[in-house]
Amino acid sequence: MQQYFIKGPFQNPIVIDDKETLKHMFQVMRLTDGEQLHLVFEDGMKRLAVVSDSAAHAFTILEDLDQNVELPVQVTIASGFPKGDKLELVTQKATELGAHAIWAFPADWSVAKWDGKKLVKKQEKLEKIAQGAAEQSKRNLIPAIQLFEQKAAFLKTLSDFDQVFVAYEESAKVGEQATLAKGLKACQAGDKILFIFGPEGGLSPQEIQNFETAGAQLAGLGPRIMRTETAPLYALSAVSYALELDK
C-alpha cells in the first residue's frame, strides 16, 4: 500500500496541497476516489486513509494503525564530507536501514569542500532522498538531515548522545572487535547513539584525539576495511541485528 508523509498537524478530513506529493499521488500512481493509502503525520503515527475527493485532493482518515518500524534506539550517522554523490547513497540506504538522523561535517582530510550555498542545496537534495526512502521502507519518520559548515559545531553535539562510536580504520587493523558489540549490549530503548565515519582519506590523528576527549569510543567494524559509504550501512545493520533480531 502506498505511504506518504504529511507536513503539519493531524487533521481529519485533510486536504493535501504539497505539489510534489500530489504529483506523485495522482499523476505517477494514478490514485482515484475510494482508493486507500497510508498517511504519516508529524506525530509519527501511521493512519489508514481513503481518497474522498480526488479533484479536491481530499482524504478521510479511517483509523490509526499500530505499526512502528523504528529502531528501538535513535541512531545518528555522521560522515566526513565524502566525494561525489556518496552522501546521497548513504542517505538513501541509511534511511532504509533505520537511521534517525544523517549528518555530515568537514573532516580534516575531506577532499570535498562545500561552502554555505552548496550546503543548502545539498541538504535540500538529501532531504528529498530521505523522504522517498522513508516512504518506500514504510518508516514512521523521515531522518533529519544536517550538514555542518564548521566542525567545531559538530563537536559540541557529542555530549548530547548516550554513546558515541568512531569507526576507526586503525582499530580494525589491529583486530579490535569488542567495543561495538559491548556498547550495543549496554544499550537501552530510547538511547541516542552517534556513529562517526571519516571521508575517503580517513580521520586525522587530531580528530581522533578530539573525539576521544569528548567521550567517543574507537571501534573496529570487523577485520575488513570498508569504504566511507559502506561503513555506515554495516553499523546500522549491526544495530538492527543486536537490538531487533538477536533477542
From TrEMBL:
Its EC number is 2.1.1.193. One of its GO terms (biological process) is rRNA base methylation. Pfam families: Methyltrans_RNA, PUA_4. InterPro entries: Alpha/beta_knot_MTases, PUA-like_sf, RsmE, RsmE_MTase_dom, RsmE_PUA-like, tRNA_m1G_MTases_N. It is an enzyme of class 2 (transferase). Keywords: Cytoplasm, Methyltransferase, rRNA processing, S-adenosyl-L-methionine, Transferase. Residues 70-239 form the Ribosomal RNA small subunit methyltransferase E methyltransferase domain. GO terms for molecular function: rRNA (uridine-N3-)-methyltransferase activity. GO terms for cellular component: cytoplasm. Signal peptide: none annotated. It is found in: Cytoplasm. The keyword Nucleotidyltransferase does not apply. The keyword Glycoprotein does not apply. Residues 17-57 form the Ribosomal RNA small subunit methyltransferase E PUA-like domain. Transmembrane segments: none annotated. It catalyses: uridine(1498) in 16S rRNA + S-adenosyl-L-methionine = N(3)-methyluridine(1498) in 16S rRNA + S-adenosyl-L-homocysteine + H(+). Specifically methylates the N3 position of the uracil ring of uridine 1498 (m3U1498) in 16S rRNA. Acts on the fully assembled 30S ribosomal subunit. Belongs to the RNA methyltransferase RsmE family. This is Ribosomal RNA small subunit methyltransferase E. It comes from Streptococcus bovimastitidis. The lineage of its organism: Bacteria, Bacillati, Bacillota, Bacilli, Lactobacillales.
